[in-house]
Specification:
The structure is a single chain. The protein is built from eleven helices and 14 strands. The protein is an alpha/beta fold and about 300 residues long. The chain folds into two domains: about 220 residues, 3-Layer(aba) Sandwich (Rossmann fold), CATH 3.40.50; about 60 residues, Alpha-Beta Plaits (2-Layer Sandwich). A hairpin with a 2-residue loop joins strand 1 and strand 2.
Length: about 300
């Protein structure tokens, strides 16, 4: 018999008054999977995670996590999940160790000394166990918050943009920790504003307007982009972007630092794009590149809106 999925959602709808936050979400997440949710602000990522955690009851549809109905079995479910929200609050005047003791007590884990030490070692926080939480760096605070979320050994973790505002090194360390948890059998559902982070997920759901536009592996998602992607390093970038946007066959163009990325429809000539940009900017590099997840997301947004912008 096939193993039951860690999470199964069907036709989930939820509204805040007249504002539809979820417009019919169908989703399945396998046990032990790292599953990413990406999308702009207001896409419905946080609302969806809160429904998964039983904090919001859907207006319609069904959701089961670890085989439990998120509405009827909410009390049982809470004991088996970990939820790190965008506004997870540590107690700044308590030490690192005292914060862990506090959350262990909340979850009724009075035998947590061994697990507490292991978590501190895994998060590289053991040497800081007596330091007040308010004196930690941003990345260390997030590691401590994750440790507090894990103190009761949940089977599935829901993380809502846990690395937002954290420096790149701390983000890398955080994802290494998540990879270890997944290898140990913990299922992870994580929303992130960083599309480079989504590359670490087994599968990624692209959300917009309360709906899932696609749910694929990172490699599979890139196959959805039918246009060719051209990357141009140039100066000035703004004038180059404006010129590229007027070229026939260019369906989208966006600026990133010292470069622009243009999506070319089938049959469009890269040479025409280069000639148009050269009239307004100095080109340092002109190359065709593989689609990134950001290109995928732009493609899906454009497809769903029926635009070529």
């Amino acid at each position: 018999m096939a193993e039951e999925a860690a999470l199964q959602a069907s036709g989930l709808r939820f509204s805040f008054g007249k504002t539809e936050a979820l417009g019919g979400v169908d989703l399945e997440v396998a046990r032990g999977e790292i599953f990413g949710l990406v999308g702009p602000d207001g896409a419905g990522k946080t609302t969806l995670i809160r429904v998964f955690c039983g904090l919001l009851a859907p207006d319609s549809g069904a959701c089961r996590v670890l085989g439990l109905d998120t509405v009827r079995d909410r009390a049982r479910l809470i004991r088996r999940i970990g939820y790190l929200s965008q506004r997870f609050s540590l107690y700044g005047d308590l030490s690192v160790g005292e914060n862990l003791d506090f959350f262990a007590e909340i979850h009724g884990r009075r035998d947590s000394a061994g697990r507490k030490r292991r978590l501190l070692e895994e998060m590289d926080l053991l040497r800081f166990r007596k330091r007040p939480a308010e004196d930690l760096s941003g990345g260390m605070k997030q590691k401590l918050a994750l440790a507090c979320t894990l103190i009761h050994a949940p089977d599935i973790l829901f993380l809502d943009e846990p690395t937002n505002g954290v420096d790149p090194v701390a983000r890398r360390d955080f994802w290494n920790i998540l990879a270890g948890l997944s290898a140990g059998g913990v299922t992870i559902v994580i929303s992130t504003p960083y599309l480079d982070e989504a590359e670490h997920c087994g599968r990624v759901a692209f959300m917009a307007g309360g709906r899932i536009a696609a749910a694929e592996t990172p490699a599979g998602a890139k196959e959805l982009v039918l246009e060719r992607i051209c990357e141009i390093v140039c100066s000035p970038v703004i004038r180059a972007r404006e010129a590229a946007g007027l070229v026939p066959g260019v369906v989208s163009v966006h600026a990133y630092g010292d470069k622009i990325r243009a999506a070319l429809a089938a049959g469009a000539e890269p040479g025409a794009l280069r000639a148009a940009v050269e009239k307004h900017a100095r080109i340092s590099a002109f190359r065709m590149v593989r689609p990134s997840l950001e290109d995928v997301f732009i493609h899906l947004l454009r497809r769903n809106r029926g635009t070529t912008a």
